[in-house]
Design goal:
With about 55 residues, the protein is α+β, with helices and mostly antiparallel strands. It has one domain. Helices cover about 30% and strands about 30% of the residues. The longest helix is centred in the N-terminal third of the chain and has 13 residues.
Length: about 55
């Protein structure tokens, strides 16, 4: 959807690859909207924690 709103061509393969990499790295929190078990939409929250070295 964001690509369409940004007037870019759809890239389902690229989106799947991006999501797969994020999931493997345990980076996102993903909420999925379902209708009777069928996925309607999703939102991905990216959480960055700044790590500071002590000392």
């Amino acid at each position: 959807m964001y690509r369409v709103l940004g007037k870019q061509k759809s890239d389902v393969g690229g989106a799947r690859k991006f999501l797969r990499e994020r999931l493997i790295n345990k980076e996102p929190v993903i909420f999925i909207a379902l209708n009777g078990g069928d996925p309607l939409d999703f939102v991905q929250l990216m959480i960055w924690i700044e790590r500071r070295e002590s000392g």
